[in-house]
């Protein structure tokens, strides 16, 4: 029986969020606890375990998992602590032998001193276990796959859908690639084309947008050519690191020319869609006008302050605009505001008092003063609608102020579904207006039943107006930060 270790390290960061993330933001699981947490869930680990548990010739061993909500850049000393924990967990398995290691990563981490922590982890594990064990990994399509990462692990699978609905499938595909590495005499060769463009907006939705056509082209080309895998990664435009860009990749079994030709074919014309693949935003004034016109149910997406993309989640800009305009429709909104939650706990359920919402993390945001009743207090533990796993927003408070209901959390959490609302007894379908702090959500969560869904041009660390954020590290020129019309494709080969 071949022994396959499973390790996970996942976080996506925005370099423009002034609040640094720490080890305390991560949920860490060891060994059997990791298996109990993720087995049977719609996650990378859940999908990988289903495949590996069903293989008769391998023993999958959950070793270590550290996952966090997207956030600001990770403090480097905390990354080093996570790295030590991961390496210690792998080291403890050395005596019994290791045939393969499956890495479940995101790909868009960054620390205050390391722009490629995933590459650093892969290299460190390789140095620890030696050249023999096979490496494979899963990645988010918003990851920034670096040369260091490919050199250390040239066998990988990525998400294929956005909004993401294939976490388990991607983990399963990565696990099947690991099985092939152990059962067959494979020699992965990776061809990579880096395309100087950053993208955002509805054209990135794989089911309906341009991006989906290119991802489908990659999947089809991999099947027709017998490639190990092929993908199109669009990166996270808010992770300001040297290799940030879109990229097309193909993995062949020892045939560099085949991988090269596949990449060129898949990427053909992609750069021409650079303008189309930007966000279509409505102004704050137009969003308020929609609220006044009664275009209900109305979903106002505040993607500029999306915790799932790395923002702090404490902007009350949309709340302020709606209240200032005397909108009388019922409003449901989330906000990250630890001081407000702490005050609500001090006052207790049923007490009415003045609160200042927002601006507790990112000082660019002005707080909004409201007189509100503490309607509910909670420990912030709830089950994720998307994955079926448990999440924690820290202590939370539900506040009611006239037509406004706010769910205030102590810490940022993923807000691309309705979990936080459901966990506090509220259903967005019962409100006229819902503020959603995510660029895109699965269609069934909001779009399927809302009358109007718009992305609002607000301020924040994950604004779709990426040219305004202040990138300093990514290679230039790159669109839309720079007005470039052409580029010369250069294929990199990794053997």
Automatic annotation (TrEMBL):
Residues 300-472 form the Microcystin LR degradation protein MlrC C-terminal domain. It holds the Pfam family DUF1485. InterPro entries: MlrC_C (IPR010799), MlrC_N (IPR015995). Residues 3-291 form the Microcystin LR degradation protein MlrC N-terminal domain. This is Microcystin degradation protein MlrC, contains DUF1485 domain. It comes from Primorskyibacter flagellatus.
């Amino acid at each position: 029986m071949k022994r396959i270790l499973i390790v996970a390290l996942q976080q996506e960061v925005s370099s423009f969020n002034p609040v640094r993330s720490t080890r305390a933001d991560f949920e860490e699981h060891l060994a059997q606890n990791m298996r109990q947490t993720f087995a049977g869930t719609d996650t990378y680990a859940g999908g990988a375990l289903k495949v590996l548990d069903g293989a008769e010739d391998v023993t999958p061993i959950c070793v270590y998992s550290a996952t966090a909500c997207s956030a600001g850049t990770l403090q480097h000393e905390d990354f080093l602590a996570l790295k030590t924990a991961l390496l210690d967990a792998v080291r403890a398995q050395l005596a019994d032998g290791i045939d393969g290691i499956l890495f479940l990563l995101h790909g868009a981490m960054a620390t205050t001193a390391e722009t490629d922590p995933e590459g650093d982890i892969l290299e460190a594990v390789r140095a620890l276990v030696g050249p023999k064990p096979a490496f494979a990994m899963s990645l988010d399509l918003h990851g920034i796959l670096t040369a260091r990462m490919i050199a250390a692990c040239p066998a990988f699978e990525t998400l294929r859908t956005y909004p993401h609905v294939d976490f388990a499938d991607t983990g399963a595909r990565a696990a099947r690639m690991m099985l092939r590495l152990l059962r067959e005499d494979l020699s992965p060769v990776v061809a990579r084309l880096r395309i100087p463009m950053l993208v955002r907006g509805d054209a990135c939705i794989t089911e309906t947008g341009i991006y989906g056509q290119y991802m489908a082209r990659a999947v089809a080309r991999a099947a027709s050519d017998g490639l190990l895998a092929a993908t199109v990664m669009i990166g996270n435009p808010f992770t300001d690191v040297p290799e940030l860009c879109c990229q097309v990749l193909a993995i062949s079994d020892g045939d560099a020319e085949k991988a090269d030709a596949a990449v060129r074919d898949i990427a053909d014309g992609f750069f021409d869609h650079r303008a189309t693949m930007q966000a279509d935003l409505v102004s704050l004034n137009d969003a308020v006008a929609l609220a006044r016109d009664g275009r209900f149910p109305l979903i106002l997406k505040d993607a500029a302050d999306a915790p799932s993309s790395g923002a702090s989640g404490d902007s009350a800009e949309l709340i302020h605009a709606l209240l200032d305009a005397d909108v009388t429709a019922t409003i449901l909104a989330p906000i990250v505001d630890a001081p407000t939650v702490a005050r609500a706990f001090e006052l207790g359920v049923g007490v009415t008092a003045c609160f200042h919402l927002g601006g507790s993390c990112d000082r660019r945001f002005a707080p909004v003063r409201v007189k509100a009743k503490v309607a509910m207090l909670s420990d912030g533990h709830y089950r994720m609608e998307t994955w079926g796993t448990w999440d924690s927003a820290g202590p939370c408070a539900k506040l009611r102020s006239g037509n406004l209901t706010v769910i205030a959390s102590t810490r940022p959490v993923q807000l691309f579904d309705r979990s936080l609302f459901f966990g506090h007894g509220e259903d967005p379908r019962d409100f006229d207006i819902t503020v959603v702090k995510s660029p895109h959500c699965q269609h069934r969560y909001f779009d399927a039943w809302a009358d109007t869904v718009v992305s609002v041009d607000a301020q924040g660390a994950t604004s779709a107006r990426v040219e305004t954020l202040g990138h300093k590290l990514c290679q230039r020129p790159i669109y839309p930060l720079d007005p470039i019309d052409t580029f010369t494709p250069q294929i990199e080969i990794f053997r």
